[in-house]
Design a protein that fits this description.
By secondary structure, the chain is of the alpha/beta class. An 8-stranded mixed beta sheet has the order 3-4-2-5-1-6-7-8, with helices on both faces. Helix 1 packs across helix 10. The N and C termini lie far apart (about 120 Å).
Length: about 475
């Protein structure tokens, strides 16, 4: 369908929360999917916020820089996605953002190829929401906003929020007019916190209002800090109802802009009834036994061909022999045109050679416990430990015998010491008794050489004791 960029500004107007609300409220016809890309150079917030830190930050936008240098950007994109669908159907996906703002300079030459890849997803039935945060619409990442079909700026309807957003919106509109698809791509997603109405803000800024979201702190906290998105009260909340209305308005704005920019383009091509020449069962490029929680998207070459507009000159130059119709008119048949694949698709899950992607945590379905994820991530670790222990036992069979001999030697040494010095324990016991008597104020018994003289009461000397004996 389209690529929608959501931008914020100073004062935390709620760009990421708004993007998550659009992701969960986006209307999806059968066969369509939507991807949320956290492209804020200041870092992503969904892993630590809505997912409450239960998914490891090992995948995300930062891995695309290395993949782009290796020419594997399109393939690596599918390995970084996380399923956020409440029912686990892999229809609402997330590409986590950066974990550190210092990683942003490494993506300086990746933003433009990433924009081309995201636009190529439309041919495979994907809509894309790009969360640019407060600084993503400027600098090297501004190419994502310039090539977006609609740029939705999140603004709070307070005096502080409107005054800080005015210069940014003016600069953004000028940039879209000179280097983007036009200033008419810019719209407003208002958060009704202040006293100003949507009509007043639209008239003051000269921009259309795509949606007016309520300032519902309790409901928005589920999207910013985590909570149960399957709760019926959350689904029927005013925030989600207005988010669904805003999603419909954004889709309407995309169709209007495309009709204006390309009037002759068919807005909604009808699927052809000609059977596809591609067999229905195509072997997967990766038939490994690893988990694949998200089904693989269908590449462009495997989709059923759609009718294409054929010029009149081409129709009259080479007529195609075909059976006559019910009224005698020949049926025109246009052979399916091969579409160059934009993305070599694989499963929207970790491919072989990389660690398996943990599924989204509760309340999101198919949550994988971190311990189970570690065991599944390195299944050969236990085998390697067992093999190492077996090799050590084979190489050193006398190790246990040596330990036993050491224990026997220690026991024998203690026995010999007890046999050689039998009075040692008695002496120790006497010392303990003397210490106890001294503690309670009792006089310990005098030694033989300290006994008093029977005549004068003075202590005997050692020689006197011997003479008395």
């Amino acid at each position: 369908m389209a690529v929608i960029a959501v931008v914020g500004g100073p004062g935390a107007p709620g760009a990421t929360t708004t993007a998550l609300a659009l992701l969960l409220a986006w209307p999806l016809p059968p066969g369509r999917r939507i991807v949320l890309v956290e492209a804020d150079p200041d870092g992503g917030a969904v892993l630590a916020g809505a997912l409450e830190g239960r998914v490891e930050a090992v995948y995300g936008l930062r891995n695309l820089a290395i993949a782009d240098r290796r020419g594997l950007l399109a393939q690596t994109l599918w390995e970084q996605l996380i399923d956020l669908s409440p029912d686990g159907t892999a229809e609402r996906l997330l590409l986590p953002g950066l974990t550190d703002p210092t990683q942003a300079p490494g993506l300086a030459y990746t933003w433009e190829p990433l924009a081309e890849v995201l636009h190529g997803l439309e041919q495979q039935g994907y809509d894309v929401i790009v969360d640019l945060g407060r600084s993503g619409a400027t600098g090297p990442s501004a190419v994502l906003a310039r090539r977006a079909d609609v740029v939705a700026a999140t603004v709070r309807t307070t005096l502080r929020g409107l005054s800080s957003a005015r210069p940014r919106l003016s600069a953004l509109a000028e940039d879209l007019a000179t280097a983007g698809t036009g200033a008419d791509a810019l719209g407003l997603l208002l958060v009704g916190e202040g006293p100003y109405s949507g009509a007043e803000v639209s008239r003051e800024f000269g921009l259309p209002v795509l949606g007016l979201l309520p300032h519902a702190v309790r409901t928005a906290r589920v999207l910013s800090d985590g909570g149960d998105i399957t709760d019926r009260r959350f689904i029927r909340s005013e925030l989600m109802r207005t988010a669904r209305s805003a999603a419909d308005e954004v889709q309407l704005a995309v169709r209007r802009r495309r009709q204006r920019l390309a009037p002759g383009q068919i807005a909604a091509p009808v699927r052809s009834a000609v059977p596809s020449a591609v067999p229905s069962s195509v072997p997967s490029p990766l038939s490994s036994s690893g988990p694949s929680p998200i089904p693989a998207p269908v590449p462009p070459s495997m989709t059923t061909p759609t009718p294409m507009a054929v010029p009149m000159a081409a129709q009259t130059a080479a007529p195609i022999a075909s059976p006559s119709g019910p009224e005698g008119e020949p049926l025109s048949y246009t052979p399916p045109q091969p579409v160059p694949p934009v993305i070599v698709t694989g499963p929207v899950a970790p491919l072989s050679g990389l660690a398996p992607q943990p599924a989204a945590p509760a309340p999101f379905p198919a949550h994988v416990h971190p311990q189970q994820h570690v065991q599944r991530q390195y299944p050969q670790q236990d085998q390697y430990a067992q093999q190492t222990q077996y090799v050590q036992q084979v190489q050193y069979p006398q190790q246990d015998q040596y330990v036993q001999q050491q224990d026997q030697y220690v026991q024998q040494t203690q026995y010999v010491q007890q046999a050689q010095y039998p009075q040692q324990d008695q002496y120790v016991q006497q010392q303990d008794q003397y210490a106890q008597q001294a503690q309670y104020g009792q006089q310990p018994p005098a030694e033989p050489h300290q006994q008093e003289h029977p005549a004068n009461g003075r202590p005997h000397g050692p020689g006197e004791v011997l003479r008395a004996r």
